[in-house]
C-alpha cells in the first residue's frame, strides 16, 4: 500500500530544518513520497508572509531539487482560499484513495495550537500526524483537548500501520532554526548560507528578498 507524507508550511523562507524534517519523515516512516505544500494564504498568522506565495513555492522547489521522494505541491498556492489543512487532506484523500497511509507532518509549536485549526478533530480521520519536536516542547503544557489526543493516539507498535488516526513524534534531535531568525539575519544584512539550501540562498540574493525596503 502506498505511503505518502504531507508537509505544509509558510516556508518564508524554506530552510535547512524544513529539509531535514522532510527527509526524516520520508526515511523514518519509509514513505514513498513526501509532498511539501506551501500555504498560499496562511490566514492564521498575525502578519502576512514576507515573500509572496510564488516565491515561497520557488524556494521549496529549489530546496528539494534532486531529493528522492520529495515533491512540491502547488495546490494551496494556486487556491484563492485560506490554507485549511483539513481541506487539503480531504482533497489528497480523494485523490489517493482510502487505503493510502497518509502522514501529515507538523512541528511541535504547530501542535500547541492544533485545537485552533479549522475542523481540527477531523484531521485524525484523514491522516496520521507526525510531530517534529522543537526545543522547549513539553507535552504537559498542551491544551487538555490536544493532550488527550497526544496521549491516546501514540501507539507502541508502529509496524501495525494504518491509513490515519495515529500520532508519532519523529526521533530526530530538535534544532532551534526558524524562518523568523533567518529573516532577522537577512534584514540585518547577514549571510544565511549556513541555514538554507544553497540554491535557496542564491535565489534570496538574486531577488533581494527579506531586505529592508
Ligand atoms: N526547527 C524546526 N523544528 C521542528 N519543526 C519545525 C522547525 N522549523 C519549522 N518547523 C515546522 O515546520 C512547519 C512549517 O514551518 P514554518 O514555515 O512556519 O517555519 P518556521 O521556521 O516555524 O517559520 P516562522 O519562524 O516564520 O514561524 C511548522 O509546522 C513548523 O512547526
Ligand atoms: O487548517 C488550519 O486551520 C491551520 C491553522 C494553522 C496552520 N495550518 C497549517 O500548518 C502548517 C504550518 O503553519 P506555519 O504557520 O507554521 O507555517 C501550514 O501548512 C498551515 O497551513 C493550518
What does this structure look like?
By secondary structure, the chain is α/β, with parallel strands linked by helices. The chain has a single domain (3-175), classed as HUPs (Rossmann fold, 3-Layer(aba) Sandwich). The protein is 37% helix and 15% strand. The chain has helices at 16-28, 53-64, 75-78, 85-96, 108-112, 123-126, 144-153, 179-187, 198-207; strands spanning 3-9, 33-38, 70-72, 101-107, 128-132, 167-169. It has a six-stranded parallel beta sheet with strand order 3-2-1-4-5-6, sandwiched between helices. Helix 2 links the parallel strand 2 (33-38) and strand 3. It is globular. It starts with a strand and ends in a 6-residue tail after the last helix.
Amino- and carboxy-terminal Cα gap: 50 Å
* Whole-number tally of structural domains: 1
Give the cofactors and ligands.
adenosine-5'-triphosphate, nicotinate mononucleotide
Q: Remind me, CATH topology?
A: Rossmann fold
Order of adjacent strands in the largest pleated sheet = 3-2-1-4-5-6
Helix content: 25-40%
Mind telling me the CATH superfamily name?
HUPs
Regions with little confidence, pLDDT below 50 for 5+ residues? none
- Using the 3D structure, state the CATH architecture: 3-Layer(aba) Sandwich
Mean model confidence by pLDDT: 95
Largest sheet: 6 strands, parallel
Protein name: Probable nicotinate-nucleotide adenylyltransferase
Pathway: Cofactor biosynthesis; NAD(+) biosynthesis; deamido-NAD(+) from nicotinate D-ribonucleotide: step 1/1
EC number: 2.7.7.18
GO biological process, one term: NAD+ biosynthetic process
Amino acid at each position: 500500500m502506498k505511503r505518502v507524507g504531507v508537509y505544509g508550511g509558510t516556508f518564508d523562507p524554506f530552510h535547512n530544518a524544513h529539509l531535514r524534517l522532510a527527509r526524516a519523515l520520508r526515511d523514518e516512516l519509509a514513505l514513498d513520497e513526501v509532498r511539501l505544500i506551501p500555504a498560499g494564504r496562511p490566514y492564521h498568522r498575525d502578519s502576512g508572509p514576507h515573500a509572496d506565495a510564488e516565491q515561497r513555492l520557488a524556494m521549496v522547489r529549489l530546496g528539494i531539487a534532486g531529493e528522492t521522494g520529495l515533491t512540491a505541491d502547488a495546490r494551496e498556492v494556486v487556491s484563492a482560499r485560506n490554507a485549511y489543512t483539513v481541506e487539503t487532506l480531504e482533497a489528497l484523500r480523494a485523490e489517493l484513495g482510502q487505503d493510502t497511509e497518509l502522514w501529515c507532518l507538523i512541528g511541535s509549536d504547530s501542535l500547541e495550537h492544533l485545537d485552533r485549526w479549522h475542523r481540527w478533530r477531523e484531521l485524525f480521520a484523514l491522516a496520521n500526524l507526525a510531530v517534529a519536536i522543537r526545543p522547549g516542547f513539553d507535552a504537559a503544557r498542551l491544551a487538555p483537548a490536544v493532550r488527550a489526543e497526544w496521549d491516546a493516539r501514540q501507539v507502541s507498535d508502529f509496524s501495525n500501520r494504518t491509513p490515519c488516526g495515529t500520532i508519532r513524534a519523529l526521533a530526530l534531535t530538535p534544532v532551534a532554526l526558524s524562518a523568523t531568525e533567518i529573516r532577522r539575519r537577512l534584514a540585518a544584512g547577514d549571510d544565511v548560507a549556513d541555514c538554507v539550501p544553497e540554491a535557496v540562498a542564491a535565489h534570496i540574493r538574486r531577488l533581494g528578498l527579506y531586505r529592508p525596503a
